[in-house]
Every structure is written in C-alpha cells, then in structure tokens.
Design goal:
With 1393 residues, the chain is mostly helical. The termini are far apart. The chain is 49% helix and 6% strand.
C-alpha cells in the first residue's frame, strides 16, 4: 500500500516518479528496521544505517505490543452488523464437517503450547449444543428444472436468485469496472434487429467467450442487464456455435449457474432459440452434460440452422446481425460433395473450401438434444498444420487442436488439397515476421561473441565499419591474449578492401587452430547471428565457420557430459539452420556438412542428431527428407566411413526387432527409425555413395527384408534403391569387369527391374513412375503419404520375394565371376541364415525364403533345424506364412542334400502332409515340394529298381501309428492302395485358383506315371492296376494319354441316332429318368455336393474313399450258355422285423477320400439273368464311425519331420515350372507276349470251370489299339474298378471345362457298359451334374454320353426296381449291402458326403 497508494485507492491522483522512488526507499528502510539488518550491498543506502540502529529497539517494541493479548474494556456501546442467514448456515456446515481436521491442525501447530486446546474445546462444545446443520427448504415456487440443478450447485445454500445476484453485483458497482466494460466490448452477447414476427433478436457468439480469461459472473451479469428491458416481452435468441471448441466451454458448475440465476420469465417469453453451425464438439459437450441439459431435450423452441438460407425464414436478411466472420464463411466456396471422412465410423461429408477456412459438413444427421442435426466443423487456415495427399483418392488433414489427422476420400483430392494449401499459404504470407529475441551474453561468451562480431563486420560494405571491426579484432586478441602470431596491429585510417574474404578465413583458421577452447561459444554466436545477416554476410559466415567444425571432436570425447550436450545442441542448431535457410541450402550442405563428414569421430553423434530430428518430424516430414538429403553431403567427403555407419546402424536396428518381435515390421516401435534410415539409403545410393563394392551383401539383405513394406513412397524408395545399386555396380570405378557378359547382365537387370512385372513385385503396381513416387514433394511439413499405408496394403506374397531374390542373386553371381576371392554370397547367406533361425514373425519368413534361394550347400542338421521350426509353427497353426516359407525353402534346399541322406524319403511324407492341410497357399507350396522330391529321388537313382510305393511305405513304417491316425483323419489309406491315395491328394490341384499349380499338378501326375512304370519295365501308358489311377486322372487333360488309352466302345456305337436335337434329347432323358426312377435319381440322401469352404480353402475331393489293401478274385462258370464271373455268395440279409438303427450323419471329410477293402474283398456278382440287390440292413455302423474319426493333421507332419538324419553333399536347385508337362521318357523295351485276362470271359468263349479261382496272367504285349483304359480284363478286381470310376466321376463333377467334361462323360459312358454292376456305386456322385447337363447343356456329344449312361442303368430294370424298394424302406438301407463289404460301404458313404 505504501509503494502503490494510487492502486490501493488511498489517493486519487497517481504519484510522480520521484515520489514513487521516495516511497520505495522508505519501504526499504522500514523493512530493514523490522528485520534488524543494515545496508551493505547498496552503497547509496549506507547513509541510513545510523537511523536504522536508532530505531531497532523501537521497532521491536512495536511488534511485541501488537502481537500480545490486550484486554479491551466493555464500553457497552456495540455497533450493529447484519449477517445473511445463508452465510451463518454455511459457516455452521463448514465447521461441523471439518472440526476433526481443525483439532488435528491445532494439535500439530508449533503454537499449541501457547494457545492450548481451550479455543477448540469451546468451539466443539458450541457445535455439540447446536447439533448438525439443517438444510434450508427450497422455495416451492421454483421450477423442477431449478430444483434439479440447485441440488448439485454450490449456490444452493445461498438461495441465489437473479434479483439477489443483481443486487450483489450492483452493490460492488461491477457495471462500472473496466473488466465489465471490456467484456461488453467483446460483443459476446448483444441485441440487434428483429425477427419476421417483430420480436427483438439477441445474439450469443460462443467462440468469443474464453474460459479462464473472462469472468463468468460478469458475463451472467452482462446478459441479465441486456435482457432486463425485455423481460416481459417475447424475444428470440440466436446462438452462433461457429468454430466453438473446448476453450469456449462453460464448466459444469458455471453451466448450472445459468439455470439458477436466469429469471423464470425469460424461459416463458423466449419464442425461438436458433442454433447456427452446430459442430461435433457441441454434440459431445451436450452428451457429457446430458443430465443438466435434460429439460432442453426435444424442446420445440430449439431450431437448428444448418444453412443461412434457413435462417432467412425466421429473420429477414437485412435484420440478421451475425458476426462478419461467420457470414464470410459462406462466400466464394469451392464445394466437394460425396466425400468420405474416415474414422471409427466412416461418414459422408461435404468439404467446403473458402478464402479463410474449410468447412466439413456432415451429409448424415446426428442427434443433438433430441433433434436431428447436420454438423458443420469449421477449421481456419491458421489451424491447418499439414495437408497430405496419400494417393489419388485420399488425403489427410492435420489440425492443431485435433487429437490426430483427419482422413478423407474423394475422387478430386488433388484439387481439394491444392485449394487448402492455397489458403494456408495466403494466411502465412499475411503474418508479420517474427522478432528474434537474443539471449543474454554470459561473461565466458564475450570472446566468442566479439570474435563473431569482428569477423562478420569485416565483410561489411561500409568502409568505416570494416575499420572498426578490424580494430575490435585487434583489441580482442590483446585483451584475451589470443594467439594470432602478430598478424594484427590496431591503427587508425586503415583502408580495408571490401573483398577480404580470404583474409577473414585465414584469421579464423589461425584462431581455430590456436584457440580451440572458444569453439562452442564462437559457433553458438555464429549460428545465432546467421539468420539476421544479409545474403552476402551469410556466405562469409559459412567461410569462417568451417575451420572451427573439426574442433567439436575435442568435446565429443570429453568426459564432461555438459560438453557433449553442448555439441549436440550446436549440431541441432546447425540442423535447424539447414532446414530454415532455404536460399542458403546448397552452400550450407557443401560448407557445413561436407566438412563435418570428414570428421570420423563426429559422425556417430551427427547421425544421432539427424535421426532424432527426422523421427521428431515424422517419416516423410520436411525435416526427415532434408536430413536424408543432407546425408548425401555428409557422405561426399568420406564415402566409405559414412556409408558403413549408416548401413551398420540400419542393420543393428533391424536386428533389434528380434528382441521384441511384432506381427509386422510396421507395428514395431523402431519402425520410424528403420524407415527413415531406409530413406537415407535411397539418397546415398546414387553415384555409389553407398560403396556397393564393400556393402553389396548388406544392401541386398536390407532390400529383401524391407521390400514391399510400409507406405507407397517407401516401397518406391526400396525399388529405387535397387535400381541405384545396380547402376552403381555398372559405373563403380572399384569394380572393373573384364567379362563383357557381366555388364550385359547388369544392364539387362536395370531394364528388367523397370518393367511393370517388378513394379508389381515391389508393391507399386499402381504408380506410373517409381522415381516420382519415391521423391514426391511434401505439400506441408510432414507429408503423411510416407506414414499412411495405402488401403490395399497387404502382405507380400512369398513367391514375389522368391523372384526378387533370384534376380538379385543373378546380379551378384555375375559380378563375382570377375572378382577374385569374393565372399559376397557367403556374407549374404550368413546374414539370412541368422534371421532364418531366429523367431521374428515379421522377418523370419522372408529370411527363410532368402536362405533357401541363395544357399549353395546345406547340411542335414540345417534341414533338421528348419523342420523343428516347422513343427513349432504347426503347433499353433497361426502363422501360415511361416509354414509356407519353410516348405518353399525345403523345396530349394533338397537338391543340395547329399544323395545318401535319408531326409529325401521323409520329405516326401512332409510334402504329402502339407497337401492335407487344406490351405490354398500351403497346397501350392506342398505340391512344389512333392515335385522337387520326386525329381530328386529320380535323379539320384533310388527309383530305378524299386517302386515308389514300397520305398515310401518302408520309410513311414517307424511312424505307422501316427500315419494310421492321419489316414483316418483324411479318409485316405496309403497302406491299402498307395497310388489311388496319392491321386486323391493330387486331384485337388485341378481346382486350385492359380494356373501354375494346375500345370504343376499335371506334371506331377505324369512324373508319377513314369516312376510307377519304371520298375515294371513297361511302357508308362500301358494300363495296369498300378498306373491306372494316374491315367484316369490325366485322361481329361492329356492328349497323349487319350491317344494311348482308348475307348473300347464309342458313344456313337450304342447311342440312338434319331434324336432330333440336344434340347429334345434333354427333355426326353429327363422324362425317362422321372418315369423310370433310377437309383441315381432317387438316392437323394446320398447326393454329393461339391465340397467348398467359406474361408476359400481348397474343397475336399470327395468321391475317393479308403483304398482297398488287397483282393482275391474268384471266377466261376455259370450254368447258362454265356460265361460269367460269380463271387462268393453274399450273406443273407437281415430279417425285416429286426430293429434297425439309423446311421448317424456323416460329416464331410476334411480332405480327399480313397476307398479301402479287406483282403477278403470279392468281385461283384454277375449272372446271365437278373440279380436282386441286397438290403442296406447289414451296414456296419461301427466301421463307419471309425472311418469318420479325425485327428490333428499338424501333429502327424511333426512326427514325419522329426525322424530325419544328417548329411553334406550339395547339388543345384532348378525350377520345374518351365519343364514339359510330360513325365520322364521311359526307354523303349521289347514287346511282351499277349494273354487275355481271366477276370471277364471274352465274347464267344466257353464257360470256365465253376468254383475255380485263377489268378490273372500278366499280359506279354499290348498294342496301342488294344490298350483300353477301362479294360475289364486288366482291371479285374472290384475295388480297382470302383476306384477308377470314382476318380472319373469326381473329375467330371468338379470340372468346369466343357471339353474335359465331354471326354470324361465318354469314358463314363463306356464304364456303364463294361462295368454295369459297379457303375451304380458312383452314380450318386453324378446326380447333380447329370441333372445340370440335361437342363442346360447343348453339346451333342455330352448329351449322347449321358443318355448312354442312363440307358445302361435302366437296362437292369428288375435290379433297379429292387434297389428302389430298398431305398424306400428307410435310411438304413444300402445298395452295397448285397456285396457284404464294409469298406465298399465306407466308399459309398465318403463319395456321398
């Protein structure tokens, strides 16, 4: 009060400066008297010390008197005072609730002994006498809204009303305060104009209220005073929510005050409240305060205005008084409709770009206070931090007050982004330049500061200033004893030319060498003054800064951490200078960073600073791109050193991802660092700045791990890196290729990598130019196109990586031919091998692929280790990519195993087990492994004299128990019929979505056909029980098989020739089928559907069941004139009265099924007369249940892979995709003699002796004309006949090619003739297909074949009628019951699933 009497209200006129000075000195004297202190530091005050000493005692006595208790006599004349009851109640409640805390505080106080507990005891006694505080009843006239709000308001105890509030504010003359006047001038709330109804309109501009800056009570008082003249009149209110955000909010307690203080008459007389430009923040605010705002929900007085035109309906345009900034938002708009805003819930919006702001208006209405509202978010140009074009249809917008970037999709993104950049740039140009604030100069900074001043001004254009700067430099060297070696002499009248840059630089070099301790301070001052200098002085500054930069290494190695931090700070300032000084950018790159790159000890710290700044800005930001560009200047002075450090740092970062692996590399915490360094590599890759001769293996290793990762720009960067590496190999002076072929390979590779094929492999198929995409200019600092992955981003196919690795390997091997003792390939192999055997879901599959592609030798132990990884992957069966990569790697490595390694045989079963996993990608990989395995086994001569079946069945004997479970799980039995089981797996390949896999399936079948025939010494196309599975599978896709395996009867030989057309034939056949009720059309429960899965996996090849192990065929002679084959009499059917148990529903098997039979299987009965089929009542339910059991497939593969041995001899892997579809050529052999089969009598021969069983004699010679695929003399046993027909039926059921269907139907038509007793078994497989053919097909050959099939089935009319009666008897009947063979019944069941 003494110092500022005017401000304290003591005087009316402000004191003069002299009086204020005197009052200040007087306060100092009084303060020292109170503290018993004399003046020592202030010399001008020492004259008052005598006065201080004279008044020390008096001051002490004064303070003692005012601090002691004084008994004041009761004069009996008390002044009256009035206290509000509400205040008394509040004090009572406060003391009652906190009496314990008061007691604790007094007990712990240091004055406790002097004061004692007496005052507290008196208070506690008084409170006990008064009792707990009472809650004062509320006024019954208050509305329910106020009652609800007052319960939570801290004003409830004060019984506050608008009248009392006004009294309090007016009592303190608040309307006359400057603060209140300033609030009025803000025009937060004002009255202007009238509505169309003639009512006055009030306006509240929400964005003008700033929480924490404006007194809320004053705002309420201002609103009450403004509304007061209109209390008893109807009025209307317009609330402008344009650009309202959190800083304009009402806090919860303040929001409650509005409802408490506002008079009831205001709510009654308000006609409408117009809410203009409601935005997303307002919606969230109303949700948060839903309880307080409940009375307003659905109120009809609320009118939400989503367009100025609608406001015109209520208020005439001339009377609208919204702020000009609000109205201006609707001017000169560029509107883009049908945009999509991406968030947790994508919403359709309209983007409006104006001169000063952009508006995001929702196209779908949202609920606010019970009303459906269109939200309009407004963002001013000053708030736009960055706008980035992700791709042609998507861009992101980063706003300063938003939590994250806003993403939008629109067809015209380019124009929208251009308009936003335009308004942002125009706003930036309108802003005044910022004023640089200089830091205070410390004493130790004086030499460095003055030295910079002297050197800088020596280059001035003013001669007198140059002379003064020279004399300052002389005085500086003398004062601080700087060792300048007598080069300077202070004098007057010295003429210094303007062009003295060389002199200044020489002085700087001398001082830098002699006075290195000035380095930190001098560089700091140079950088500080750089920005304030003109362009000529900036160039001069760079010249004399350069000699000091190597001195920084003194402080990098310093034990003082503060020194190291100062170096880091200087580097950071140099980086900032590089980013901000656009005009000086080339000079800074050459002078500063070119020289720093020569200092080896400084590079680690520089790279740390570069990466730190890049990560701070974000991948793709201006900072990150400039730092990557600056790395080029850093490398130019020391290519080997800088490139080694950058590449080594990136390799270490990639290695660290293995310590905390993530599913993808982009999800790792170190991803930004990795991606930024990858950008550095791109920048350094031109002109051999990466020293490819020394680092090629590391570069290829990095490329294979990073290819096709990250956003589009980074993928293009990886592609550009490869192009630049190849280019550097061609132009590198360190590598002199003597062989012309090497340069030819490199040039061809350059052209090849620029083809669209490789664009697709690198994940940039949609870009026109990879170079343009890699160096796309940012629109604003922090171009998010580098960080935002494209929507179609998916994992890279491993086959694409294989192609890239093969191309890189070709380049490396071509270069290695001209380099002696080159170990590039070994280094690359070691790098990939380390990652291949280390857990890392993001990189391990890639490393495994690379290891398989580039390895030139492999040991059994490495294969074992790979199989162990496969076992672990199969345990979880979650990472299918890892499983696929291992299978592909094994395919590559197998030819390099030593020939006597037992692993070759076990890999056959690994491949078979992979085929059973029912995954599209894994099937292709497993099939490739199987093909390679067969070629390897064939090449090393194992299959020359031993059949594949015997060799492989012996190999799996140690694991027979596990494979038995596997057979049951898959519905296959290799033990029963090896060849048919193998074909069952391969039939799935015909339906694979990739054509390469389909072609490989055909090649594998051809190869298996040749391998199977080789030990027999026969032509591979000769039909026999061993080769017929492969011939049947190939007949529809191989012209060679069809030309060598004929039809005995052509369709035209047993078809009607008078059918007028295919349509009439179809109708006739359909009618015949309905009238005759053949078994094929009546066995509805057994109808087969094509097994497909919802997840896109390969459907099971249903139709081939457990293969039969062996059979003995008995032939007998019938008593008729025609010879026939009779089987052992079937068992007697069960009594019709016997109870029947219906078979449980059979689930669809997980994979292909092949039929099996027992050793006692029998030929189908045949006789000259009609034969009645048995009932289905003898169906063995227990056998069927066993066949349906399934076990875990991956467990079986693990056991197959776990029993592998060791080795060491490499061979060369070669791709089999380019080979011919035909299998290996079998050498010609001498013709064999011919013998007819005894399984079926030839036409015209006599009956054979009844009851005698004769085994079939092997045919000695078979000509091309009589080599029949469906020859009953060759396929003598019933199980083989069934299986062959099942293969054909399965193929015809699943084929979509009309030519293949035509061929298959012709062979099936012949089967219905030569195997009439067998054909009904597989007929149910063809029901749906035959119906489809009859209804839709117009191919005459197919219709003829189908007609033949149906007619042959109708031929045995009595048997068919008998079978029909059994089918109608119940679900337990079975047409195979007649044969009494449970495994054939099992076949039928599998085929019907």
């Amino acid at each position: 009060m003494v110092i500022s009497p005017y401000e304290s209200g003591i005087i009316d006129v402000e004191a003069t400066p002299k009086i204020k000075r005197g009052l200040t000195l007087m306060c100092k004297i009084m303060q020292n008297i109170a503290n018993h202190l004399l003046f020592t530091k202030e010399n001008h005050m020492r004259g008052f010390n005598d006065i201080l000493k004279a008044n020390f005692e008096a001051g002490r006595r004064f303070f003692t008197e005012i601090a002691s208790d004084v008994d004041i006599p009761d004069t009996g004349n008390h002044s009256l005072s009035f206290i509000n009851d509400a205040n008394v109640l509040a004090l009572h409640r406060l003391l009652w609730n906190n009496q314990e805390k008061i007691g604790d505080y007094l007990s712990s106080s240091r004055d406790h002994k002097a004061v004692g507990r007496r005052p507290f005891d008196k208070m506690a006694t008084l409170l006990a006498y008064l009792g707990p505080p009472e809650h004062r009843p509320l006024d019954s006239q208050l509305s329910m809204t106020k009652i609800h709000l007052l319960a939570d308001s801290r004003w409830s105890s004060m019984d506050m009303t608008s009248t009392k509030f006004e009294e309090i504010m007016s009592k303190h003359n608040m309307h006359e305060k400057d603060e209140f006047k300033s609030l009025k001038n803000l025009h937060i709330f004002y009255q202007a104009g009238t509505s169309r109804a003639g009512n006055p309109v009030f306006y509240y501009i929400a964005r003008r209220y700033k929480v924490g800056e404006i007194n809320g009570d004053l705002l309420i008082y201002h609103v009450l005073l403004t509304l007061k003249p209109y209390y008893n009149k109807p009025f209307e209110l317009a609330i402008d929510f344009t650009h309202t955000c959190a800083e304009n909010r009402f806090r919860t307690d303040f929001l409650s005050k509005w409802f408490v203080v506002m008079p009831e008459v205001v709510y009654q007389n308000i006609v409408f409240t117009y809410i203009y430009n409601c935005n997303s923040w307002v919606r969230e605010y109303t949700k948060f305060h839903d309880r307080i705002l409940t009375p307003l929900k659905g109120n009809r007085k609320l009118v939400f205005i989503d367009h100025p035109a609608r406001l015109n309906e209520y208020i005439d345009l001339d009377h609208q008084k919204l702020p000009g900034s609000t109205v201006a938002l609707e001017e000169d708009l560029k509107i883009s409709n049908n945009a999509l805003k991406l968030s947790h819930k994508d919403t359709k919006v309209t983007i409006k770009v104006g001169p000063n702001a952009i508006q995001i208006t929702s196209a779908e209405k949202s609920k606010v206070l019970g009303h459906q509202v269109l939200l309009n978010d407004v963002y001013y140009a000053s708030e736009i931090e960055e706008v980035c074009l992700v791709d042609d249809n998507q861009f992101t917008l980063t706003i300063s007050n938003e939590t994250g970037p806003l993403s939008f999709i629109h067809n015209d993104c380019d124009n929208i982004v251009h308009d936003i950049i335009h308004i942002r740039t125009r706003w930036e140009l309108s802003q005044p330049d910022t004023v640089t604030v200089h830091t205070k100069i410390r004493p130790k900074d004086v030499p460095g500061t003055l030295l910079n001043v002297a050197l800088l001004n020596l280059g001035s254009s003013d001669p007198s200033l140059r002379s003064a700067a020279y004399n300052l430099l002389c005085a500086l060297t003398q004062t601080f004893d700087l060792k300048i070696e007598g080069q300077l002499l202070e004098t007057t009248g010295l003429c210094i030319p303007a062009n003295n840059t060389i002199f200044i630089k020489s002085i700087s070099e001398t001082l830098a060498a002699n006075e290195p301790h000035l380095t930190l301070e001098f560089l700091e001052e140079c950088i500080q003054g750089f920005g304030n200098s003109n362009i000529e002085l900036k160039h001069l500054c760079l010249e004399y800064i350069t000699p000091w930069l190597p001195n920084l290494t003194r402080f990098c190695r310093h034990t003082d951490e503060n020194k190291r931090q100062k170096v880091a700070l200087i580097l950071d300032k140099l980086i900032t200078m590089t980013i901000e000084e656009v005009e000086m950018y080339p000079s800074i790159q050459a002078k500063i960073w070119g020289n720093i790159g020569q200092v080896a000890d400084l590079l680690d710290m520089v790279l740390d600073s570069f990466i730190k700044r890049s990560v701070t800005g974000g991948l793709g930001s201006i900072q990150a791109e400039i730092m990557a560009d600056t790395a080029v200047a850093l490398t130019s002075a020391n290519v080997q050193l800088v490139s080694r450090k950058v590449i080594g740092r990136l390799c270490r970062l990639i290695d660290k991802t293995c310590t905390s692996p993530t599913p993808t590399l982009e999800q790792h915490l170190m991803w930004d660092d990795i991606a930024i360094l990858a950008r550095y590599l791109l920048m350094l890759s031109f002109n051999n700045s990466l020293d490819v001769a020394s680092h090629l293996p590391f570069l290829f290793h990095i490329v294979t791990l990073l290819v096709c990762t990250g956003p589009l720009s980074l993928r293009a960067s990886t592609h550009g890196l490869v192009i630049n590496i190849i280019h550097s190999l061609c132009t590198c002076s360190q590598l002199q290729f003597s062989v012309e072929n090497t340069l030819k390979v490199l040039k061809m590779s350059l052209a090849e990598f620029s083809l669209p094929k490789f664009y697709q492999l690198f994940g940039i198929s949609k870009v026109k130019s990879a170079a343009v995409s890699a160096f796309r200019t940012s629109f604003r600092p922090g171009d998010r196109s580098f960080t935002m992955s494209p929507p179609e981003h998916e994992k890279m196919p491993l086959c694409s990586l294989e192609t890239i690795v093969d191309a890189l390997l070709e380049i490396m091997e071509a270069c290695m031919k001209d380099i002696r003792n080159c170990d590039w390939l070994q280094q690359w192999t070691d790098l990939s091998k380390r990652f291949a055997f280390q857990y890392n879901p993001a990189l391990q599959p890639r490393a495994i692929i690379v290891f398989g592609c580039i390895s030139k030798s492999v040991t059994d132990s490495e294969i074992k280790q790979m199989l162990k990884i496969l076992m672990k992957a199969l345990e979880s069966f979650q990472d299918l990519v890892l499983i696929e990569s291992i299978v592909m790697c094994l395919t590559r490595l197998q030819p390099m195993l030593r020939a006597d390694s037992p692993i070759h045989k076990f890999l056959f079963w690994v491949a078979i087990s992979v085929l059973q996993l029912d995954e599209v990608s894994l099937y292709a990989a497993g099939l490739s492994l199987l093909e390679q395995n067969l070629h390897t086994l064939d090449n090393i001569g194992i299959l020359e004299n031993e059949s594949l079946e015997r060799l492989m069945m012996e190999t799996r004997d140690p694991l027979q128990w596990h494979f038995k479970q596997l057979d049951h799980a898959m519905g296959l039995s290799f033990k029963a019929n090896f060849n048919f089981a193998l074909v069952g797996h391969l039939l799935k390949g015909f339906r694979h979505p990739i054509q390469t896999t389909v072609s490989r399936t055909i090649r594998v079948l051809h190869h298996l056909l040749a391998i199977t025939s080789k030990p027999l010494g026969r032509d591979k196309f000769e039909v026999n029980p061993q080769t017929v599975p492969y011939l049947a599978a190939l007949v529809s896709v191989s012209e060679e098989v069809r030309s060598r395996c004929h039809l005995k009867h052509r369709t035209s030989q047993y078809m009607m020739t008078d059918s007028p057309s295919s349509d009439s034939l179809s109708a006739e056949m359909s009618q015949t089928v309905q009238n005759t009720a053949t078994p094929s059309m009546t066995t509805a429960p057994s109808t087969v559907t094509v097994a497909t899965t919802s997840n896109g996996s390969i459907p099971s090849t249903t139709g081939i069941s457990q293969a039969h192990s062996s059979s003995s065929v008995s032939t007998t002679a019938s008593s008729g004139s025609t010879a026939s084959v009779s089987a052992t009499p079937p068992p007697t059917p069960a009594s019709p009265a016997a109870p029947q148990t219906p078979a449980p529903p059979t689930p669809t098997p997980p994979a292909t099924t092949v039929a099996t039979t027992t050793a006692q299987s029998q030929s189908p009965p045949s006789s000259s007369g009609p034969v009645r089929q048995k009932s289905w009542e003898l169906l063995d339910q227990q056998a069927m249940a066993v066949a349906k059991k399934a076990t875990s497939v991956p467990h079986q593969i693990q056991n197959a892979a776990a029993n592998v041995a060791q080795s060491n001899n490499p061979k060369v892997w070669r791709s089999l995709d380019s080979e011919s579809n035909a299998g290996p050529v079998v050498p010609s052999r001498p013709p064999l003699f011919k013998t007819r089969s005894s399984s079926m009598p030839a036409p015209g021969t006599k009956k054979m002796d009844s009851g005698k069983s004769q085994s079939r004699v092997v045919r000695g010679s078979v000509s091309n004309e009589n080599n029949i695929l469906l020859d009953p003399e060759v396929l003598t046993d019933y199980p083989t006949q069934v299986l062959v027909l099942t293969v054909l039926a399965t193929l015809v059921r699943n084929t979509t090619d009309e030519n293949e269907a035509r061929i298959l139907y012709e062979y099936l038509a012949e089967a219905s003739v030569v195997f009439p007793k067998v054909f009904p078994v597989i007929h149910s497989l063809m029901d749906a297909k035959i119906n489809n053919v009859l209804n839709l097909c117009h191919d005459q050959a197919i219709l003829n074949a189908v007609q033949c099939i149906i007619q042959n089935m109708i031929a045995c009319e009595d048997a068919s009628q008998q079978q029909l009666s059994y089918l109608q008897s119940g679900p337990a009947s079975d047409p195979l019951e007649e044969y009494g063979d449970p495994e054939l019944i099992q076949l039928f069941r599998f085929c019907s699933q």
